[in-house]
Amino acid sequence: MTMTRLALAAALLLPGAALAQPIDLSGGGPVEVTATEGIEWRQNEQVVVARGNAHAVRDGVTIDAARLIARYRPRAGANGQAAAAQPGGESPMSGGEIWRLEAEGNVRISTETDKAQGDRAVYDMDQAVMVLTGRDLRLATPNDTITARDSLEYWSQRRMAVARGAAKVVTSDNRQITADTLVGYFLEQAPAVQPAAARPAAPSGPAIRTPGAAPGGAQGATAARRVPGEGSKLDRVEVFGNVEIRTEAEVVRGDRAVYSPVSGMARVLGGVRITRGQNQLQGQEAIVNLRTGVSRLVSAPGQRVQGMVLPSSGGENAPAQGGAQGGGRPAQGQGQGQGPGQGQGQGRTR
């Protein structure tokens, strides 16, 4: 089977481009594209299309799909001498830059540590955002996995992922948070990068190469860089609508929540319901420790928290109420809440 290879070089000098970030294609440098069914250059449309097991690599980020579409435009300051400077004369994107990369059909995007998948992906270089749509949407890091039904966005410069529709994050220890919409913020990191003065200058245009030819300047530009995606870790997760947090012992539901993977703590707000077995507590705010499985229902000033604890379930299965721990006694009549407002806690047994 013949493999067609094309190198598309485009120097995108965007803010923060020197940082090696997870699944970040906006850092400039050449994009090497291969395909088994050929590569088509539509010069008038300023589009390059690769079909059949299309494979693209840029700065440590790999994209695999049935079809890849690279859209380019004239680069600011480009002149007519760009084509002549390229080996082999005029070629796609001579003096141009890629501004949009599209992947269709069984899309897989990966770095050394991070992976994303879907039926279709669009990467906007100007906004540094990737949008995945289709089935089985997934963004996986060594510590967490984010999935969605409708769309999954990754903003590489903002270090942010947005999952829409049946959004879920699963931690490495199998803790789960689901909601209608999920926004995840990743820890800011600055992996080692080769100094700009020592990096070879990015080519002003692409070069057509035969299989086996070395990518022009690609290896030199990435040799001293860490692979994008190294050390990706969620710092904070915000979820909205039909929030559900599951631990080994209980389920906590509410309208919205904020979760810190670093501390393992989650704060749930609005219509909170904590369920453990047949026991249930209700209120407007809860603090959940996903590592210990202990939840605390917090009462607001002037409000009561309510609970129903069945004696047959055993006191050890009752959720914590106020400041009590998860192994506390079943609620009996009126009990004092331990939350910030020192409100009344109310439970009843049957």
From TrEMBL:
<feature type="compositionally biased region" description="Gly residues">
    <location>
        <begin position="323"/>
        <end position="350"/>
    </location>
</feature>
<dbReference type="InterPro" id="IPR052037">
    <property type="entry name" value="LPS_export_LptA"/>
</dbReference>
<feature type="domain" description="Organic solvent tolerance-like N-terminal">
    <location>
        <begin position="40"/>
        <end position="148"/>
    </location>
</feature>
<dbReference type="Pfam" id="PF03968">
    <property type="entry name" value="LptD_N"/>
</dbReference>
<dbReference type="GO" id="GO:0015920">
    <property type="term" value="P:lipopolysaccharide transport"/>
</dbReference>
<feature type="signal peptide">
    <location>
        <begin position="1"/>
        <end position="20"/>
    </location>
</feature>
<dbReference type="GO" id="GO:0030288">
    <property type="term" value="C:outer membrane-bounded periplasmic space"/>
</dbReference>
<dbReference type="GO" id="GO:0009279">
    <property type="term" value="C:cell outer membrane"/>
</dbReference>
<feature type="compositionally biased region" description="Low complexity">
    <location>
        <begin position="197"/>
        <end position="213"/>
    </location>
</feature>
<dbReference type="GO" id="GO:0017089">
    <property type="term" value="F:glycolipid transfer activity"/>
</dbReference>
<keyword id="KW-0732">Signal</keyword>
<feature type="region of interest" description="Disordered">
    <location>
        <begin position="306"/>
        <end position="350"/>
    </location>
</feature>
<feature type="region of interest" description="Disordered">
    <location>
        <begin position="197"/>
        <end position="230"/>
    </location>
</feature>
<protein>
    <submittedName>
        <fullName>Lipopolysaccharide export system protein LptA</fullName>
    </submittedName>
</protein>
<dbReference type="InterPro" id="IPR005653">
    <property type="entry name" value="OstA-like_N"/>
</dbReference>
